[in-house]
Design brief:
With about 425 residues, the chain is mostly beta strands. About 10% of the residues lie in helices and about 50% in strands. The chain has a 16-stranded antiparallel β-barrel. The chain starts with a helix and ends with a strand. About 35% of the residues are buried.
């Protein structure tokens, strides 16, 4: 870390402001003409900040909208301005996880007890002008992976209503997936719901593509939109890390994702989204043909004082992570999650959170009677407790139970898990 900071300081020829305690955190109107860059302190984080991944700056008139199309300006430990870059902010997170999974099993071979460096990320957010910038989030280590990128894209904003983001970024599908890994309410996102959407079917999570986004206000409501085209991934493996250019190169079929958010009042956000998975049909090499699967999602986010309520449901085609099933025929799925978070603030920047969460999944769902496959659903219950020593230093602890919904003897065993994580986000 010391080496990285020293390199940034030398590279940008920084000099301290006379009084850094009062230096502005954002670019001033004449910052591009300043004779020397200024190091400004990071804005103080609050617990009520939107927990969404960083994106291009929010349009000024729609800054109060709870929309993920343009998240609040990122906070970080270092903010730099010079004649080329109006702003460069450094932020990141370090997360150490300990877990004991399936600890109630009768067989020792089913039990898993271990430590894991869950995430060690550093992120750079920069503005070249007020309308052009970039973001790069670098994975130094974590979850048995080393040296990669998560977010890495350019953004351009024409006005409050229209902008573009292009590169490696999250598909705008599912508020659960779009929640920032720096400030999750539970140790993991949805170990049932999110894992199914992202890793099994590829409807959510990171991908390479181009997104058009914007936000506007009208008749007391805030509205945001995102529409994107993505490479997708075509393979018989899961879709985790589907932004592999070597794997994706050459495919003509592209995935399309769209999301709409509406905030009729400040405390409430409603959303709806659609995401597709497309695959080339190469049965005739002389002509282009493709097939596509589709998923739909609706969600709500309501804040009432200390209480925050989150809920989402999705349904669509389940190709079980196999592109061949997109061509030959896939089943339907139904999934949901609901969460309640009670937040308490204390003196000295300390705080606590109590989290209750329920997830459900039917991977072979049917609307009509006797349709779908019985005895293959799952429910997951999670109770979590989070404690913040400061706004940047916290400990999360979750106890979860996975319940198979089945009448098959021997397959209805409850799976218990305990996860604890220490987190520093800056």
């Amino acid at each position: 870390m010391r080496f990285i900071l020293s390199t940034l300081l030398l590279g940008f020829s920084l000099s301290h402001a006379d009084d850094p305690a009062v230096a502005p955190a954002g670019p001033t109107p004449d910052s591009s003409h300043a004779s020397a860059p200024v190091i400004a302190p990071a804005p103080i984080q609050t617990f009520t900040k939107a927990r969404t991944d960083s994106a291009a700056p929010a349009p000024a008139q729609a800054a109060t909208a709870a929309s993920d199309s343009a998240a609040p300006a990122p906070t970080g430990i270092l903010v730099i301005r010079n004649p080329v870059l109006q702003r460069l902010a450094l932020s990141g997170t370090v997360q150490l996880k300990a877990f004991y999974h399936d600890f109630a099993s009768d067989r020792d071979s089913d039990k898993h007890l271990s430590f894991q460096l869950r995430r060690f990320n550093l992120a750079l957010d920069g503005d070249v002008t007020g309308n052009v910038g970039f973001r790069g989030e670098f994975l130094l280590d974590g979850a048995n992976k080393s040296y990669g990128t998560d977010d890495a894209y350019l953004w351009w904003r024409a006005n409050d209503w229209f902008g573009l983001k292009g590169g490696k970024l999250k598909r705008p599908f599912s508020q659960e997936a779009l929640q920032s890994s720096h400030s999750l309410y539970t140790v993991e996102r949805g170990e049932l719901y999110h894992d199914f959407l992202a890793n099994t079917n590829g409807y959510a999570d990171y991908d390479l593509g181009l997104i058009a986004y914007g936000a506007f206000a009208g008749q007391g409501a805030q509205v945001g939109y995102e529409v994107g085209v993505f490479n997708g991934k075509q393979s018989e493996k899961d879709y985790a890390g589907q932004q592999d250019v070597k794997t994706d190169a050459g495919f003509l079929a592209k995935d399309v994702v769209a999301r709409l958010t509406v905030s009729p009042i400040r405390a409430l956000r409603l959303e709806a989204a659609v995401s597709t998975k497309a695959v080339d049909d190469k049965s005739d090499p002389n002509s282009f043909a493709y097939a596509a699967n589709t998923a739909y999602e609706i969600g709500a986010d309501l804040t009432l004082g200390h209480l925050r309520l989150l809920g989402e449901t999705s349904l669509g085609d389940n190709h079980q992570g196999k592109d061949s099933l997109i061509l030959s025929g896939s089943s339907e799925f139904f999934a949901f999650y609901a969460a309640g978070i009670w937040h308490e603030d204390y003196r000295g920047g300390r705080a606590s959170e109590l989290v209750l969460k329920l997830e459900g999944l039917d991977p072979d769902f049917g609307w009509e009677k006797d349709s779908g496959k019985p005895n293959d659903g799952k429910l997951r219950y999670t109770v979590g407790c989070n404690y913040f020593f400061t706004s940047a230093i916290s400990v999360l602890a979750d106890y979860g139970i996975l319940q198979p919904i089945t009448l098959v003897p021997g397959e209805d065993r409850l799976i218990h898990s305990l996860d604890v994580m220490a987190r520093i986000s800056f």
